[in-house]
Amino acid sequence: MNILAISGSTRQGSLNTRLALLVAELRPADVVTVVSDLDRLPFYDADQEAAGTPQALAELRATVTAADVVVVVTPEYNGTVPGLLGNAVDWLSRPPRQSVLRGKPVLVLSASPTPYGGTWAAEHLRSVLTRVGATVLPAGLSVADAHRRLGSAEPDRQVVADLADLLVETLDSAPQAISA
Fold first, then answer.
1. Backbone dihedral angles phi then psi of residue 151, each to the nearest 5 degrees
2. Tens digits of per-residue pLDDT, 1-48?
């Protein structure tokens, strides 16, 4: 399976990027690409879009197109998705009705140092992705206290087990959702 894991954070030592990399570690038989440089994309606006496709966007669109499933890992800023990730979704949703996200299976994960694990951001992201035509998988994982559970050299065993189970459940046990 070709899996694209997108981290919504570019911060050095990002807990969300760590979670995206954990997806790759848990899927050694698959081709997993981790993208954590969304800051390469210019801010979306119609004038920029009319001027042509930025190279970084063309590369990201090609990577999304090639993926069987996209795993998006979002931090939570002020109760929602960070602007950097929202900008990437804005670009990927264009042009309307021709988006590379249209019909693409997407699994949403989140990680936050808060006791809620970024659940608000994850729900907002699921809503936006659904609106732009992605096939948002119903399951997900929000890692609370991520600074403690993902921040050390070895991630928390329960997080690893929960993520492994989720990946098996959504990617292996429900292939019809992926191939739809």
1. -80, -15
2. 999 999 999 999 899 999 999 999 999 999 999 999 999 999 999 999
